User: What shape does this take?
Amino acid sequence: MSSDEGIEIDPQTIKELELLEAALSDVDTEIIAKQYLMTKDIFAQRHNTISKIPKFWAVVFNNAQIDLEAAITPGDREIFEHALTGIEVVRPEIPASAKLTDAGLSGYGEPRSVTLRFQFSENPWFSDSVLEKTLYYRYSKDGEAGLVSEPIKINWKAGKDVTEGLTDAAYAFWQAQKKSASQNLDGVVSGDARKARDAAAKKLPEYKTVVDTLENKVEGAISFFNFFSYRGRWTSAAESKEAKAELDARRQAALAGKPVADKEEEEEDDDEEMPAEAEAETFPAGHEVAVTIAEDIYPGAIDYFMSETLDSDDELDGLDLDDDSEDDDDVEMS
Amino acid sequence: MSSDEGIEIDPQTIKELELLEAALSDVDTEIIAKQYLMTKDIFAQRHNTISKIPKFWAVVFNNAQIDLEAAITPGDREIFEHALTGIEVVRPEIPASAKLTDAGLSGYGEPRSVTLRFQFSENPWFSDSVLEKTLYYRYSKDGEAGLVSEPIKINWKAGKDVTEGLTDAAYAFWQAQKKSASQNLDGVVSGDARKARDAAAKKLPEYKTVVDTLENKVEGAISFFNFFSYRGRWTSAAESKEAKAELDARRQAALAGKPVADKEEEEEDDDEEMPAEAEAETFPAGHEVAVTIAEDIYPGAIDYFMSETLDSDDELDGLDLDDDSEDDDDVEMS
Assistant: This one.
């Protein structure tokens, strides 16, 4: 395609494309809910079977590194190998009682919100037996949307913190924001209110600690455990509800062919400093990594596991019960 | 993970994993059907909107090259840019009358079978206005499963064949096999019968033409248009029906905890020649490319298109009606 050609697209056509994208995205979201309800029981059974296989999840994460696009440091790998006993993926806004037949988008909360539950055996690194990270899909009033989350505390044993203080610093920063009335973490903040929150955040000593700790890191040496501190562009449930309602109203108007007033443009100021939450983000790929774990690695775990441990050209899509038992008795991991 | 550690897995546990994989694969297949029924009307609308945008699909295929993992040659690109006016994806074994409520696996045929319909304007390369490739998901009696397809004819204009005779040769080979009684393309062939078919195929002069034409190709210079000649490991509908029934029976037995007799092992003979159909395959990545087009490129086409043509950090997941019209009036493709 030569670069001197221009494609002119009518603004009306672009609006149509956006409405179509929104409709397709709604279907994708509903499919997440349907698939969750259809696979729940199978995954519960799998959980039992997997528990009979030592190091199952360590092997899976090892083999999934390319898809994860995240560094799993040698320190992380050691923890996974010695102590990671199980993983569960839960959709917290889909009630346990939900049925496939009522799997319409209106039936319950946001299917994209997700809880990743990592289970650990007694180990030398931390005292927690479960590290649970919940990421909420939220819309902000200034037009962003994505997974946001509260940093969680990992109770590292003395001298054993593979994140070298980063998860502690991120957690302390979050707690300091929570205590500070000016932060309004549970409220609706857009435009100037968000800017004011940000300015106040930067004044907290806990903010400086996070940024300093991050600065001292060698690039690429960020432990996977910093994922538990991911926060994203924090947006409260209250703000998300309002923003989603506005979005829906604009979409209904557009679908009805009514003129949709352009939302006030955010002034883009290139000289603007990076917001505190971006500068103090310990795990910038948190959204993508959570989606990859929930939608690829967790459902495809057996494939990831087999790809390394079994020397086979089995068609795993079909059921293959033809294994030569002699071969399977002693599977060596290379 | 050190390489000197072995993981021993009980054969019974492996059988459990395989049953779980089969159950998850069934859900995936059903989800394909549900998503198809839920998006059909949206894609029909999109088809209309897209028709107003020149070179839409050429831009999409250009941007999708990495995901396609297939060479799009400069010759292909020229054709796409000048003549590709539309793409449609149809699931031929899901009847047009199917409803979401009866979207169970038993309700209709194989949801993974797929028709890719490429529409072209009058052009200097070939006289066809539609190139339609149907790939059937089929099980063979010797345990394979995947998408298979009949090579289709492209009516190239004189001196304009960008595949340099390959699609013609593949089509002629297929037709010769069809005419030869010994090939039994519509029948059930496993074990020795498949070997006999293969030996007979290798004696056809049309087989030799395909192999010779392929040998003269520079690696990586295989045109995308050879996708229309992809055949895979050809298996008839009749054989697939029998093989699937056997597979289901074995699975039911395994689920009921009954001992499942190991299927006779195929003798693996490393010295064996490559089968005729593999040696004469014009587009080895056909299965993967078809799935990528149907499940990624086609549903995500607007994103692929936008990623090149619109300079935006729009969150396309949410609906963004905030475009600055001045920017959109004249979108330049770089």
